[in-house]
Amino acid sequence: MVLGVLCGLASGQRALDLDGHVVDPFAAASGKPVVLVFLRRDCPVSGRYAPVIQEISKRYSDRASFWLVYPDRGDTAQDIRKSVNEYGYQLPALRDPEHALVKLSRVQITPEVAVFDRDRRLIYDGRIDDWYIDLSRARPAPSTHELQDAITAAVARTMVAQREVRGVGCYIADVE
Amino acid sequence: MTLRERRLGWSLLISGTILLLPQLSAGGKSKNPPSFAQNASEGWGTPSPGDFSVNSSSELTFDRDVAPIIFRSCSSCHRPGEAAPFSLLSYSDVKKHARQIAVMVRTRAMPPWLPEQQETKFADELRLSDSEISRIVTWVEQGAVEGDPADLPPAPKLVEGWRLGEPDLVLKAEKPFILPPQGTDTYWNFIFRVPIQETKWVKAVEIRPGDKRYVHHANILVDRAATSRKRESESGAGFGGMEIRIESQVFDPDSHLLFWKPGTIPYVEPEGMALRLDKGTDLVLNTHLQPSGKDEVIQPSIGLYFTDHPATKIPMLLQLENDLKLNIPPGEKNFLVTDDFTLPVDVDLIAIYPHAHYLGKDMQALAILTDGTQKTLIHIPQWNLNWQAVYRYAAPVLLPKGTTVSLRYTYDNSDENPMNPNHPAMRVKGGNRSSDEMCHLWLQVLPVNFDVAKGDPRMALQEALARHNVEKNPADFEAHYNLGAMLQAKGNLDAALAEYKAAVQLRPEDATGNNALGAALVAGGRPQQAASYLQAALKARPDYFDAHYNLGFALAQQDDFRGAVDHFRTALQLEPQDAAVEANLGAALAEMGHYADAKAHFEHALQLDPNQPIARENLQALQNEKSQQ
């Protein structure tokens, strides 16, 4: 049974940290599940999720390895650093100008997340929760928690109910 | 020595919240436009049957086909310093959001415009035509090409700073509000003390709500008696709350809808319809804020533009409502609430402002003319509080005497309503909290074709509305109270007393009701009866200035000057700058023989207000007496 897509970055397609160094988030995860959080700086929904992302990453910090990923080719490291500081993120950030991580993660929208298990298999990609109904409307509080369910599944090596649930926000393809 | 009465507590309770949210208006073919997430999973470009995509063999370009629509309908908000989260001013701006734009216009989520198309047109309609939508969608499907720069229309003109030029008076919120990064929508009220020494006429107001990206809408209420200040923890701090209530002491109904939403261009009132601002008036800015994910500093300012021409035409805000009928069981998907009010005079309808909270669904207002024909005044098929707005008509709509304005709102209190604040759904009633529900419709009307000799037509409107409300909900405290106030203002004291009594019977411990009844009894020469109601008012609200003042007055009329002095002193502690209290305190002291003390208070009263008649008259009397001795 195939639980997920075995991941591997093609050579020449590498995400960069904010100092310009090539980073493989999987190698750096020391065997923990990996969570990639895709954000666009110009996406208001990405912004509003910042406290939620930080809360979840704190809660699961000992069980999973979290990375922020910025896919907009036009973003400089400095732009991203500024944004990370403004929102008070305590998470490492990556630039993904070649969309290497985007392709690997199959995400389409920001904010969306990709959760990989210890064997680097993609077990979930999509929304964090169902807070937003569409770009005009958000629920008072989310009623589903896909990201947390996926992390729990990755840790427990079980399956998630739905492997993909698309998010509400801004298209990544628009910044290709 | 004469004691003169002053504040006999006729207050009109004006519940002043103007909240409207527009939502995905189902102007397209589908009543339930597919959600954004569904669109995304289907692929942004897949047109559904009956959708907007055009069968076009020629390639559409940004410069020729799309830029004119974007520049006209999007760029006024989508530019730096404005409300939208990103700019749409150039090809590269638009390309970066092309798929998102296609979805937003196809579902009519953008530009934000809730009402359906109707015969009676609104000014500044933000609706895109079907062909404009199909042009944008097809352009995106074809690959969003740029085209020939020679085709590009001129870039939209960007006005920096105040839209109408430098205002005559700029007011800035004394203290900023720090919007927390997280949580649900936040409602904050800023009070602006208007530093004018004489009456001014305002022809335009520009609201700069602070960082526009986080302010969903803002709404100014004119507080002529500075009653809202009491709600501030410290002066200038502002106060929380979605719906606020302004009390007024005289017949001076609100006349203007002063509303800001993203993209609002300040409205200049037509000649003769300026807003009156008196010395001592506060402007209360009610803001609806949405957290951004980080701390945001919100410090609004207001620009006022004056005219030398006093108002010659005074419009009035009519409020239809039926909050008492809001008692919505959990699971109810289609709870209907109505209110039908028949106009006693001819009016021109200038603007309309529907308002509900999160359960509001289909909101409609009709005019039923005397010949039975119906005219849709507004129809919002899918309410969205986040996009509420004041809608101004392209031309005034004449509603002749006898026309019935009919409000018809439905509410969805099921779990399927994603905006429902309660999961699982629970019973929801009318109220001021955002988790309560509301059923309001404001109409800005200008009475026309009236006979000046028959008095102020606004009074006829207000009285008819007050009577209508009492008939509609006989157990409505506010309806009786307002009708009482209305009748008292007309000089019909006995009828007013009956309404106040009905109000106090409904809420025996209500401070405002007891004070009004007490004050009316004082005015009717029945101070003994008045005292017990005024004492009840003070029991409910010990720091109630009006009740202390009125009770002091009632006691003085019964020759209990010691008691009167006590209450006037307390009133003075509550409002040290009130010349009338000073004057009456002086008069009571004089009655007790404390002339030196009395003189000091008269003099202070005249310092506060050189024309204070009681102080002037009594000081003169004191001096005459002295010279005779």
Account of the protein in words:
Chain A is 24% helix and 24% strand. With 176 residues, chain A is an alpha+beta fold. In chain A, the strands form 3 sheets. In chain A, strands 1, 2, 3, 4, 5, 6, 8, 9 and 12 form a 9-stranded mixed beta sheet that branches. Chain A is globular, with a radius of gyration of 15 Å. The N and C termini of chain A lie far apart (34 Å). The N terminus of chain A is likely disordered. Chain B is α+β, with helices and mostly antiparallel strands. In chain B, 29% of the residues lie in helices and 22% in strands. Chain B contains 15 helices and 23 strands. The chains are: A alpha+beta (176), B alpha+beta (629). Chains A and B meet through helix 1, helix 2, strand 10, strand 12 and strand 13 of A and helix 1 and helix 4 of B.
User: Cα-atom Rg of chain B, whole angstroms?
Assistant: 28 Å
Strand % of chain B is 15-25%
Give me the oligomer status. heterodimer
The neighbouring-strand order within the major sheet of chain B is 7-4-11-6-9
How many strands of chain A?
Answer: 13
Question: What's the short version?
Answer:
The complex is a heterodimer of chains A (176) and B (629). Chain A has 176 residues and is α+β, with helices and mostly antiparallel strands.
Topology:
The complex is a heterodimer of chains A (176) and B (629).
Chain A (H helix, E strand, L loop, with lengths): L4 E2 L8 E3 L4 E2 L10 E5 L5 H5 L1 H10 L5 E6 L6 H10 L6 E3 L4 H6 L3 E2 L1 E5 L4 E6 L5 E3 L2 E2 L7 H11 L7 E2 L4 E2 L5
Parallel strand pairs in A: 4-5, 5-6, 9-12
Antiparallel strand pairs in A: 1-9, 2-3, 2-6, 4-8, 7-13, 8-9, 10-11
Chain B lengths: L11 E5 L19 H7 L19 H12 L17 H5 L2 H9 L23 H12 L27 E4 L4 E3 L6 E8 L6 E9 L6 E9 L15 E2 L3 E5 L9 E3 L14 E3 L4 E8 L6 E3 L2 E7 L8 E6 L5 E2 L6 E8 L4 E9 L4 E9 L5 E7 L10 E9 L4 E8 L16 E2 L10 E8 L9 H16 L4 H13 L3 H14 L4 H13 L3 H14 L4 H13 L3 H14 L4 H13 L3 H14 L4 H16 L1
Antiparallel strand pairs in B: 1-8, 2-13, 3-12, 4-7, 4-11, 5-10, 5-13, 6-9, 6-11, 14-23, 15-22, 16-21, 17-20, 17-23, 18-19, 18-21
Helix pairs in contact in B: 2-5, 4-5, 6-7, 7-8, 8-9, 9-10, 9-11, 10-11, 11-12, 12-13, 13-14, 14-15
